Structure formats: structure tokens, C-alpha cells
Amino acid sequence: MSFPITRLRRLRKNPILRGMISETTISADDLIMPLFVCPGTNINNPISSMPGNSQLSIDLLVEECAKILAVGVKSVLLFGIPESKDETGEVACGHNSIVQKAIRAIKERFGNDILIVADVCNCEYTTHGHCGTIVDGDVDNDLTVVTLAKQSLSLAQAGADVIAPSDMMDGRVKKIREILDENGFSQTPIMAYSAKYASGFYGPFREAAESAPKFGDRRSYQMNPANSDEAMREIALDIEEGADIVMVKPAMSYLDIIRRTKDTFNIPIAAYSVSGEFSMVKAAAANGWIDEERIMMEIAMSIKRAGADIIITYYAKEIAEVLNRK
């Protein structure tokens, strides 16, 4: 029927009714908070391009986890800033590498009350800032996969609950799944950064993780922002190789990829609302141009509405605080 018999505004008049028929909901269980861990004690290095975020030494990182848990967010994603770097990222593979030590400290304090997702990549750990071993001026795929698998096993041995390879090397999910299974970690899931685009939205992260490439760019291994069909191929391959969760990154400019992934694959989907998305909102809010809380929640809702089951966001703690007020 048509107007005036059908009046869709009837269902919007009452706030209780609006909530009752809401098609999309967000809970703290959907959220993962990214954190950056650095060497030292009592170190809090604010990240200038990401207000409210810092590089934290392990002792302060543990305290930050307590604050995150207190508002209901139960999952963190760890990135490491090492004491020194090398040419291949091997520095990230040791028992006493920075993220491994952080994982053990968090688990000692909180046990299974917190889920630790360990990012697996080499860009923070290489002297050149690229995601793997350089041969003839480009990242060598197969040599890099060997290092990534070694790093993944070390992180699992330290107590990581989820392994999250973010490098975009071909075949790395299969190699990581094999090494985990061979060493008694068949129950450790892999959250693959499956459709990770070569995006301009990563700028603030590169300050946070000290991972800017010293030459060139990452377009030979991260995806072309123009491509959607290719994302479906990447995701299908990662699922075939053993990924338990697939990720689309960034989130806000790639909502169509999230929706297409949801419609195509029967698998949990994570979306990473990256540093540039966060910092743009912060900058606009600091200038009084937008309502930060409203925009923050609207962006999160759009990611969930597009089909993401999991939202990785630097706003995780603030979103949970808003949810707690309702």
C-alpha cells in the first residue's frame, strides 16, 4: 500500500519502538582494541597523530588491558616496537621478542579473561620497513612466508589466542596453519587479513608502529583499491588454506567489500577501522566540526550493518563506554 495508509514514520516516533525494531546492534563483544607495546618500564609515548593512543611498555600495557576489560571489551590486538630491527624480521620470532613478552605478562595477570590477537607481519621489525625479506628491490614472497610461520609459532607458544597475519603474502595462511598444527596448536585460530588494501588511511599507524617503508611502497603486495573481484579471490584462497576468520582492511571506504564478503562466504568477518579513519574523526571533532561520539557510533554501526561480525577499532573503549550508558 502507499501513502497515507503506509506511514513508515509511525515506527520512528517512539524511542523504545525504534530500539525494538533496530536491524543492527553493536555490543562490546564485537570489539577488538589495537595496542602498541614498546620496550622499557613505565613508558608512555603518546602517538601525536592518534590522540589518546600511546606506545606502552609492558607494565603500562597490562594496566591498559585492565581498563579495557573494565568497560567490557575483552579482546586486544597487539603490535610491537622492538629494541632493534633487522633485514628479515627475524627479531620478531624469538621467545623474548617484545610481543611474546607482552602476551605472557597479560596472560599472567588476566588468564583467559582476555582474548589476545597477535598481529603477524614484519614491517615493524625490518630496517627497511617493508613486510618481508627484500630480494632485488622487492619483497620476496616465499622467503617471507618462512619468517611469518616462525613468528606465528613463537606467538602461539607465548600464549596468543588468535594469530593474525597481515602481510598479504601468497600462501602464508597455509604455511602458518601447517606449522601450528605440527607443533600442537591445531586449536589456535587464524584471523587472516585477507583483503588488505594499499590504502592512504594507514598513515598514522606508521607513526604508531614505526613501520613506514624506507623506499617505494607496498602496492606490489597489498591490494589495489579499485578491485573487488580480486578481494573475493584472496578471501577464497585464505579460507581454502585454513583461515578461520577473514578480514577486510580498511573498513569505512570498503563497506562494499565487507557486504560482498558476507554475501559470498559463510565465515566470520572482521573489519579493521584503521588509524586514518580514527584520526580524521578526532581532528574534525577537535575543530568543533562534528559530534565525535555520534560519528564514532555511526561509523561502527555502518561497519556492523555492512556485515562485519568483529570490529577492530581504536574507539573500542569509547564505544563500550557509550553502550554501558544505555
Describe the model.
This protein is an alpha/beta fold. About 40% of the residues lie in helices and about 15% in strands. Helix 8 runs parallel beside helix 10 (about 290-305). The longest helix is centred in the middle third of the chain and has 18 residues, at about 140-160. The protein is globular. The model has no long low-confidence stretch (mean pLDDT about 95).
CATH classification class: Alpha Beta
Instruction: Please tell me the overall pLDDT.
Output: 95
Strand content: 15-25%
The CATH superfamily turns out to be Aldolase class I
Q: Please report the number of helical segments.
A: 11
* Radius of gyration from CA coordinates: 20 Å
Helix content: 25-40%
Domain count, please report it: 1
- Could you say which overall geometry the principal axes of the C-alpha atoms support? globular
Which runs of at least 5 residues are low in confidence (pLDDT < 50)? Answer: none
CATH architecture: Alpha-Beta Barrel
